[in-house]
Design a protein that fits this description.
Blueprint: E1 2-3, E2 9-10, E3 12-16, H1 45-57, E4 62-66, H2 76-84, E5 89-94, H3 103-108, E6 113-117, H4 123-130, H5 135-147, E7 151-158, H6 167-173, E8 180-185, H7 202-209, E9 215-217, E10 227-231, E11 237-241, E12 254-257, E13 262-264, E14 273-274, H8 275-280, H9 286-294, H10 321-324
Parallel strand pairs: 3-4, 3-12, 4-5, 5-6, 6-7, 7-8, 8-11
Antiparallel strand pairs: 1-2, 9-10, 10-11, 12-13, 13-14
Length: about 325
């Protein structure tokens, strides 16, 4: 098992396939003309498989594929198929614009759930946030996944003054559809122009929801990042990922591999470990993984605390969200 100095066992690996994306969400991508990582510097399918096997041999039993948008890679189907042969719960986070091309692949790979990033239920606002016209396709593919009996979780980054007024619209959406809506507090990354006054907190969200609904609190697992709720009579449910106002680091079991093969032991860590170069140089990768896990900070990458109002984003050292992996 991969256990850090705070006795946290890590069994969940998030692998970014690419920093490329066919949308341009401003909070994720620093600028429209972003320079993507050249293909030669990305992990190749056999390298992803090799590194994943090392993690699995040391206790990992869940793998999530992320991006960028993981499904824009031409070899995404091959990667999904390779990883589906490992004894893991395989899933992915996607913007859903290409899911119609992968329904059969996901079914054959026994992918049981997908997380879909969608920050608005308004088509015009979708165009503003993503700087692309793809709302109808995303909605079609959400229904396609449900028809394939794949669990759909909707990731909503809530930003004050942008989409906080839509929270109850998302709740209403769960009335007749078995969706799991996850509201996410806006987090700081390189280039996303984060300020604390844009954060709509867990408590803010609940106050707004309670103007129309009576949420029922559900049980959270020790490793869960979200605080779970349901509304009586709704087929779906909702939860809140309160990274900024109420962090959940004490039960963290997650590690990340960037598309260029760097290991991050925390989303907010300012340090990375180059596993891909070691693999290509035929070095033993496991000691590097163990060292990275052992050096993991107690919370939030060691860069800030839950007093998020005091954070100066310019003082943080990290990548942009798209180059880390969602």
């Amino acid at each position: 098992m991969l256990i850090d100095s705070f006795n946290r066992a890590h069994n969940y690996l998030r692998i970014s396939l690419t920093d490329n994306c066919n949308l341009r969400c401003f909070y994720c991508m620093p600028e429209e003309n972003y320079e993507f990582t050249p293909a030669a510097r990305l992990m190749q399918p056999d390298e992803i498989e090799s590194l994943a096997k090392i993690f699995v041999e040391n206790g990992v039993n869940k793998i999530r594929l992320t991006g960028g948008e993981p499904l824009v890679r031409k070899d995404a189907a091959d990667i999904i198929t390779r990883l589906s042969r490992l004894p893991v719960d395989l899933t992915l986070t996607t913007n859903a614009t290409r899911l119609h091309d992968f329904a059969d692949v996901l079914t054959k790979a026994k992918v049981r759930s997908v997380n879909i990033s969608l920050d608005t239920l308004d088509a015009d606002k979708f165009n503003i946030i993503t700087r692309r016209d793809g709302f109808a396709k995303v909605m079609d593919n959400i229904h396609l996944m449900l028809s394939c009996n794949i669990i759909v979780k909707i990731n909503v980054v809530v930003m004050k003054g942008l989409n906080d007024g839509e929270i109850n619209d998302f709740i209403a959406w769960t009335k007749d559809l078995p969706l799991q809506v996850r509201f996410i507090e806006f987090m700081p990354f390189d280039g996303n122009r984060w300020t604390s006054n844009q954060v709509f907190t867990w408590k803010d969200m609940l106050e707004q929801i309670e103007t129309q609904y009576t949420p029922l609190r559900l049980h959270d697992g020790v490793h869960d990042t979200d605080k779970k709720y349901r509304i009586e009579g709704h087929k779906g449910s909702f939860s809140v990922i309160s990274t900024m106002s109420s962090p959940f680091c004490s039960g963290c079991n997650r590690m990340r591999l960037t598309a260029d093969g760097k290991m991050k032991n925390c989303l907010f860590s300012d340090k990375e470990t180059d596993l891909l170069s070691a693999l290509r140089n035929k070095q033993d990768v496991l000691p590097l993984i163990l060292e990275s896990i052992h050096s993991k900070a107690k919370e939030l990458g060691g860069q800030f605390t839950k007093d998020f109002e005091k954070i100066d984003a310019d003082d943080l050292h990290n990548r942009s969200m798209i180059s880390i992996g969602g």
